[in-house]
Amino acid sequence: MPDLLHLSAVTPTHLPHAAPTTLTLSPGECLALTGPNGAGKSSLLRIATGRERPATGEALFDGSPVHEDDPAARARIATVMDAPAFYPDLTVREHLMFVALAHALGDEAPGTVERILEEHHLTAQADALPSTLSSGQGQQLLLASAFTRPHDLLVLDEPEQRLDAAARDELAGRLDAHKKHGTAILMATHDHALAAAVADRVLEVGGV
Questions:
Q1: What residue stretches are annotated with the ABC transporter domain (predicted)?
Q2: Which of 189, 199, 197 is nearest to 39 (CA)?
């Protein structure tokens, strides 16, 4: 199966002496990046999505150089990265509806949003503002936003953070289901159980 994502001998700009990283990812496959904080995992995720230019090497998405401002790539790559970024004046439901409509779900948007709210245990908080959510609920909203929109590639930076054990198990099951539907998943994680449950391959990041 052709590679959907290919990082070829890339190094982050702030880690010029790090060992170059080469990785490939095919549809329906999950690759987990592990390693200590500061090793460059998040930078590799940003390179994979075109948010950061590598100091060396290149990043290809579906055979073409990936750029964050490329509409074709943006339409096919969903991310959970960096600090939470919510629309402060929109309720949880309105936030997800905005995401759904922005990605052309059309008439399917209301039903999709209600399903996602239920799956992420946010139905009771649907009319609340993001600022009122607990840290775990906020993480669920981040994940819900990514799962609401269509995607061929999921790029996740420590998706397990702020989730309790039960929610992490549900996340593993959800990611596995997306894999079976052909989604490629690149994630950085400190949760070895999550990596073991979902990842087809694990890449340790941090060599020099």
A1: 2-208
A2: 189
Over residues 33-78, the pLDDT tens digits come to: 999 988 899 999 999 999 999 999 999 999 999 998 899 888 999 9
| 8: helix, strand or coil | strand
Among 205, 187, 185, smallest CA distance to 4 is for 185
Helix (H) or strand (E) holding 179: helix 165-180
A 10 A CB-CB count for 155 gives 25
Number of domains in the chain: 1
Report d(CA 173, CA 170) in Å as an integer. Answer: 5
The enclosing domain of 67 has a CATH number of 3.40.50.300
Q: What is the DSSP string of 79-136?
A: EE-SS----TTS-HHHHHHHHHHHTT-GGGHHHHHHHHHHHTT-GGGTTS-GGGS-HH
User: Can you give the residue range of the structural domain that contains 141?
Assistant: 5-204
Radius of gyration of the chain (CA): 17
102 contact partners, CB below 8 Å, separation of at least 6: 149
77-80 and 56-61 strand pairing? unpaired
> Using an 8 Å Cβ cutoff, are 19 and 56 in contact?
no
